[in-house]
């Protein structure tokens, strides 16, 4: 996805990381399409499996791994491997099948102190899929 302005009228899709690989670039617009829905931002939750001082992280939600780019303001927090986090930000597909998909974090929240969040996340994604995404496929 080319670097351009963010359209906040487009929803941030609640997804499992593996679903991101099915997103297709929309021609002539700064958006991707998945399940017939245009989007720019993804909403993910998972475990940080690696963290670096340079603002690059890997997030694993047990369906796939996504590379996170965290801007300096968010990187000031004490992010470390093993934390369960929520991330929302623009999604960039991998250029080849060998690279991780990438999300630039606009919002990142540590949910580690809420152990039920992970199991609830699976239900939230399934519910969003049934209520919104499947509806657009018919």
From TrEMBL:
PANTHER family the UniProt entry points to: RECQ-MEDIATED GENOME INSTABILITY PROTEIN 2, RECQ-MEDIATED GENOME INSTABILITY PROTEIN 2 RMI2
Taxonomic source organism: Rhynchospora pubera
Protein's GO biological process: DNA repair; maintenance of rDNA; negative regulation of double-strand break repair via homologous recombination; regulation of sister chromatid segregation
Alphabetical list of InterPro entries matching this protein: NA-bd_OB-fold (IPR012340), RMI2 (IPR032245)
One family name in Pfam for this protein: RMI2
Name of the protein in question: RecQ-mediated genome instability protein 2
GO CC annotation terms, alphabetical: cytosol; nuclear speck
């Amino acid at each position: 996805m080319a670097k351009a302005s963010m359209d906040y009228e487009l929803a941030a899709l609640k997804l499992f990381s593996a679903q991101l690989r099915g997103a297709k670039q929309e021609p002539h617009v700064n958006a991707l399409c998945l399940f017939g829905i245009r989007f720019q931002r993804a909403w993910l939750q998972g475990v940080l499996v690696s963290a670096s001082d340079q603002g690059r992280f890997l997030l694993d939600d047990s369906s796939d791994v996504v590379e996170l780019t965290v801007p300096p303001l968010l990187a000031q927090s004490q992010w470390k491997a093993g934390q369960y986090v929520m991330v929302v930000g623009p999604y960039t597909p991998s250029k080849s099948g060998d690279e991780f998909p990438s999300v630039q974090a606009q919002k990142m929240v540590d949910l580690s102190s809420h152990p039920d969040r992970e199991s609830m996340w699976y239900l939230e994604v399934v519910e969003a899929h049934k209520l919104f995404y499947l509806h657009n496929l018919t």
